[in-house]
């Protein structure tokens, strides 16, 4: 398979980049793609989760759905990205919630698809638009916006409809708004070792669109 670099990125912290990057990697493996994950965040949340989850199993030679690398401080990002570009299959990268990092430019620049999780509120939609504009200048990647932690309370429906309209009209200029992912315990408590039916149910609509976008790029 061709190489494809998919980022989970955004300007803001805590929108679900690491969580959704983790679940997407597992989902893509289930769909038959070869997958490697790279943690490009200095906090190394996903990288640490991976080894912590492995340790809880307490057994040797378990097979994890995907393997993980970290981007170490001493790595030359430019060199590392050119190596990563040669890896067959999907390389899914968890990015930090900031852009004020020189190294990130190389990463954004080598991406084929950038998935941007955001929360469905006014401020977050606005910040995502700013990020989309900025990215357009430095990356040719296909931009996909992923509404996360969508609340299902009835009283929020009207608010949600407005946020959805706004996101579609403002972000639609730069890329594609994906179906939302609900706020739920199953997603919150996900790990790097696999995925259960509740998690699969929560992410399937959005992730099927990402898979569709990957297939379109592969067949180009
Ligand atoms: N759909 C969801 N439902 C419930 N909890 C969620 C959902 N998505 C993410 N979370 C929770 O929200 C918190 C923040 O998520 P996460 O760490 O993935 O965000 P992040 O964007 O990677 O943050 P950072 O910018 O700090 O790297 C975590 O506790 C995570 O479990
Ligand atoms: Mg993170």
Question: Strands, helices and their partners?
Answer:
Layout: E1 3-8, H1 17-30, E2 35-39, H2 45-57, E3 67-70, H3 77-84, E4 89-94, H4 102-110, E5 113-119, H5 122-138, E6 142-148, H6 157-171, E7 176-177, H7 185-188, H8 197-218
Parallel strand pairs: 1-4, 1-5, 2-3, 2-4, 5-6, 6-7
Helix pairs in contact: 1-8, 3-4, 5-6
Residues 17-18, 41, 45, 94 line the site of magnesium ion.
Task: Describe the fold and architecture.
The chain has one domain: P-loop containing nucleotide triphosphate hydrolases (Rossmann fold), CATH 3.40.50.300. Helices cover 46% and strands 17% of the residues. It is built from 8 helices and 7 strands, in the order βαβαβαβαβαβαβαα. It has a 7-stranded parallel beta sheet, sandwiched between helices. The longest helix has 22 residues. The radius of gyration is 17 Å and the shape is globular. The two termini are 13 Å apart. Magnesium ion binds next to helix 1. The site of magnesium ion (MG) has 5 residues, from helix 1.
């Amino acid at each position: 398979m061709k190489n494809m670099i998919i980022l989970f990125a955004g300007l803001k912290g805590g929108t679900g980049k690491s969580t959704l990057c983790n679940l997407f990697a597992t989902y893509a493996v289930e769909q038959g793609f070869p997958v490697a994950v790279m943690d490009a965040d200095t906090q190394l949340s996903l990288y640490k989760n991976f080894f912590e989850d492995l340790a809880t199993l307490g057994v040797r030679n378990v097979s994890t759905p995907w393997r993980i690398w970290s981007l170490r401080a001493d790595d030359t990002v430019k060199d590392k990205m050119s190596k990563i570009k040669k890896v067959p299959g999907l390389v899914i990268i968890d990015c930090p919630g900031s852009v004020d990092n020189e190294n990130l430019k190389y990463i954004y620049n080598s991406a084929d698809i950038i998935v941007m999780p955001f929360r469905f509120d006014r401020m977050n939609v606005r910040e995502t638009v700013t990020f989309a504009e900025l990215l357009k200048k430095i990356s040719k990647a296909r931009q996909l916006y992923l509404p996360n932690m969508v609340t299902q309370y009835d009283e929020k429906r009207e608010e949600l409809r407005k946020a959805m309209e706004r996101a579609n009209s403002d972000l639609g200029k730069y890329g594609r708004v994906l179906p939302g992912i609900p706020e739920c315990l199953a997603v919150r408590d996900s790990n790097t070792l696999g995925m259960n039916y509740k998690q699969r149910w929560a992410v399937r609509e959005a992730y099927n669109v990402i898979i569709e976008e990957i297939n379109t790029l592969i067949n180009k």
